[in-house]
Amino acid sequence: MTKPTPKQIHAIVDAAGVPVSAEVATRIANSIGPAFEGFAAVAGTLPFDLEPATFLLVQAGKASK
Amino acid sequence: MSAEPALLLLTEVAKAIAEKRFSSREVTQSCLNRIKAWQPRLNAFMAIEADEALTAADTADATLAKGEGGGALHGVPLAHKDMYYDAGKVVTCGSKIRRDFVATTTSTALQRLKDAGSVRLGSLQMVEFAYGPTGHNFHYGAVHNPWVFGHITGGSSSGSGSAVAARLTFAALGSDTGGSIRLPAHFCGVTGLKTTCGRISRAGAMPLSQSLDTVGPLARSAEDCALLLGLMAGADPDDPTAIAGPVPDYMAATRGSIKGLRIGVPNAFYVDDLDSEVARVLDETIAALKREGASIVQVELPDQRQLTAACQLVLATEAAAFHKRWLIERPQDYGPQVLMRLQNGLAIPGVSYLEAMRWRGPALAAHLASVAAVDAVIAPVAPVAAPTIAESDVGNSPDAEAVIQRLTRFTRPINYLGLPSLSIPSGFTRSGLPVGMQLIGRSFDEAMLLRIGAAFQRATDFHARVPKSA
Predict the structure, then answer these.
(1) Full-prediction pTM beyond 0.90?
(2) Which of A43, B119, B202, B383 is the most buried (most CB within 10 A)?
(3) What is the DSSP string of B367-430?
(4) Strands B77-81 and B262-266, how do they pair?
(5) How far is the alpha carbon of B271 from chain A, nearest alpha carbon, in Å?
(6) Which residues 6+ apart lie within 8 Å of B52 measured at CB?
(7) What is the ipTM of this complex?
């Protein structure tokens, strides 16, 4: 996902069950936008078989090559 | 040895009590005297329990007189960040929402320190729900830096940093999810250990982000941190994420030389856009480590900005999930900045959150490959020394996220990777503010960081300096 717009934020937060005003939606978009931009190069590129628990294997030095 | 027992190191005072050179009552009273003098200006304590502390100290002394009580912290008074559940005690979590919350269980980390014989002095201030890097608290007021009043302590373990620096407690538990131990350690001139995810049980510690939360100590030296880590680390049936297996002898590690060790210095990111005084302290720290026999090697780390972004996606989402009920029922009871940041997490799609979680393994593998040739990496904790409370009081203004990002720039990547990091006092600015450096290690290799930190502290005295009287 690229940087979300205030309109998209409004819809997502509404769906989460905690509606916010248009002003707050704009503020949220500005606050989290950099995180989406920073992660953009990774998003949508991860291999099919990768799951979050891989982290624990790497941490324990047990990840397969 | 100091005539004022509160000025001793944790390891020194524990030994002095065990050898009956000081009673627990004398030590506890010494801390209470300092608390009385400093608290009005620092606001470091959430609750001071003087009578209970002295009663517990008397009990500790009586036990020792009978030849019992051989715990490593027997009779040592401590206070901790007010987010560690202690059955029967109010645990505010720095919030209005939990102002009257009485814990029914005791956190595993806290219980292990109690089992070692520690005495409770009270509880320490913190940022509301541990969600903020500056030390401001909308409900209970900002905590002040004991080195220069009016400057921030860093957060979220604000009271822990301030109280340890001012010698009000010998050590304090903090928690580190995005920098909350290392930032107060850096800004306040104390030693702070962010542990590897899984090293210490989080059972009974207030949650912020289950994937990133870590428990750890702020203390006066690396050796003090080693003592506390050894007491708290290890498996816990109440927290399946706490890893099993033997706990290393961290105290023994602090006695090792660093001659021949290889310490990496990042060639970018952690050395970019530094305040000139922070840059000077980094250079001086590297020079001191060289004098102690370490080899300094430049390392090229993977893109740290991506790690920071991934950390933000995980932290914001998990924090919002923990708080969702109160966001619906009691939004008016949050401070403006914490409310703003919790609302941010509501807007992150599940797929984005899970991508950030899925990438954690490959990101850690890439990092470990990049540092394979070194024993640890050294980097600043933050690009600046402590700013003033006024200039960093940004609330929920449009500037808030930028201020938070700037302060946490060098800490968040380490949280995302789940790595251990030891913040050590490394120098001072010309205006008298402390500057800390962080030693970053491999997963579960806290022993290496404590070894390097202790060697640095044998060669320098930054950790032993005490702020002037209140």
Answers:
(1) yes
(2) B119
(3) HHHHTTT-SEEEEESSSSSPPBTTTT--TTSTTHHHHHHHHHTTTHHHHHHT--EEEEEEEE-T
(4) unpaired
(5) 19
(6) B120
(7) 0.95
